[in-house]
Structures are given as C-alpha cells and as structure tokens.
C-alpha cells in the first residue's frame, strides 16, 4: 500500500511537473521544454524514488511480472546476448565523450556516472550541463524496453555514514526521476543508495574519493 501511494504521488507530481517544464517561445508561439525546470523537477521528485517502483511488486520477480503484464516480452536464448550487444553499441555511440563509462559485465551493462559531471559537490540536483547526456540515456533505454534498470548511488567516506547514505539515495533518485520524466517506464526501475559501503578506489586520496562518488545504472536483460 505504501509503495502504491508513493507511485501514485510520483505519477501525479510528474504529470503536474511536465506542464511546469514547458514554456511558450515569445517569438514563435511554440510550446518548448525548459531544461532548467525539468532538472528542478527531477531534484524535487527524487526523494520519493527508492526501492522497486512497480505498483504490484514483491521484489525482483514482482518487477519482472509487472513488465511482462505490461506487454514487455521476456528475452530468451541467443536473443539475450544479441539484444544487449546492440544496446551497448548504441550507448557507446551516444555517450562518447560524455564522461560516462559504458562497461559490459556478462549480459549486463553498467553505466558509471561520476559525480564531477553529474552533480555539484555535496549536491543531489543534476547539473544542467548533464541534461543532454541523460536525454541520450533515456532515448536509448526507451529503444530497448526489454531490460530492467537498477540505479544505485554511491558516496566517498567523507562525512558520517548516515549523511553519505542519504546523499547517495538522493543522487540515485534524481537520476531516476529524470529518466521517468523522459518516458522511461517506472516499472523497470529499482533505485537505491549504497553510501560509502562499496568503494571502487581508495578513499585515502582525492582521486580515489572522486571515483567513489558516482551513480551506477545497471541494465539487465528481462528474462522469464
């Protein structure tokens, strides 16, 4: 029931926000999207986006069931590798030079979004210069609906455990909100923060801490 209320609240917030994210060009009269307002919406809605976002989920299997029930077919056999190969190639082409690393781990694809290109220091609002990159991510995700999406925030060890945990959650939620507001089906998402618990480099150096401050987007093939 709680998740259902959160999901309904999120849907309402995004629907209302979508109108607020448009403006009328005074020269042409054309309605256009405002990236600044869209980013503000993502940051504001982000706090509500944690855990599985399906209305009927009971964990990972619930997410799969919701997607299959929504008409998203499951992959099987050789189709899995081919599907992920094509998605990886599109992501590499779209994200070249963006600062986002595209890594293949078996049948999974991991997008590593370092905080220096995604967020300002100690902030969870997405930097406006990163909007075009996330637009490309959303576009590719919408082109390949037969994948689930885990969005995981991480922090370095500066500050308290509780603070870093909360910051990692807010950053993951901001990315998730932005993607949902750009058409990515929320039933595909799992959103969480890991705080400082999963470093990929030493926290003893500034360079290592910079690597540890990140958001990972893990794409997994939807299989039955």
Q: Which stretches are poorly predicted, pLDDT < 50 over at least 5 residues? A: 1-47
How many structural domains can be distinguished in the coordinates? 1
- Figure out the total of helices: 8
Main sheet record: 6 strands, mixed
Straight-line N-to-C gap:
26 Å
What would you say about this model in short?
With 224 residues, the protein is an alpha+beta fold. It is 46% helix and 18% strand.
Structural description of this entry:
- This protein has 224 residues and is of the alpha+beta class.
- It has one domain (2-221): 60s Ribosomal Protein L30, Chain: A (2-Layer Sandwich).
- Helix content is 46%, strand content 18%.
- It contains 8 helices and 8 strands.
- The two termini are 26 Å apart.
Give the arrangement of secondary structure elements:
Layout lengths: L1 H19 L1 E3 L6 E3 L1 H11 L5 E2 L7 H10 L8 H18 L5 E5 L2 E7 H4 L12 H13 L3 E8 L6 H21 L7 E5 L12 H7 L1 E8 L3
Parallel strand pairs: 6-7
Antiparallel strand pairs: 1-2, 3-7, 4-5, 5-8, 6-8
Helix pairs in contact: 1-2, 2-7, 4-6, 6-7
């Amino acid at each position: 029931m709680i998740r259902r209320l959160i999901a309904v609240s999120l849907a309402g917030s995004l629907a209302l926000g979508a109108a607020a994210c448009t403006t009328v060009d005074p020269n042409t009269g054309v309605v256009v999207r405002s990236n600044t307002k869209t980013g503000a919406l993502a940051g504001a809605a982000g706090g509500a986006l944690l855990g599985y976002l399906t209305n009927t989920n009971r964990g990972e299997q619930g997410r799969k069931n919701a997607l299959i029930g929504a008409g998203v077919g499951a992959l099987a056999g050789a189709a899995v590798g081919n599907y992920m190969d094509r998605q990886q190639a599109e992501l590499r082409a779209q994200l070249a030079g963006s600062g986002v690393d595209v890594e293949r781990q078996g049948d999974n694809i991991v997008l590593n979004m370092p905080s220096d290109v995604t967020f300002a220091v100690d902030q969870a609002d997405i930097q406006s210069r990163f909007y075009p990159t996330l637009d490309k991510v959303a576009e590719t995700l919408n082109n390949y609906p037969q994948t689930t999406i885990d969005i995981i925030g991480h922090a370095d060890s500066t500050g308290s455990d509780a603070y870093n945990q909360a910051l990692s959650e807010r950053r993951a939620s901001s990315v998730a909100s932005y993607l949902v507001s750009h058409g990515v089906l929320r039933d595909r998402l799992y959103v969480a923060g890991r705080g400082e618990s999963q470093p990929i480099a030493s926290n003893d150096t500034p360079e290592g801490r910079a690597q540890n401050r990140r958001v990972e987007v893990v794409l997994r093939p939807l299989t039955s």
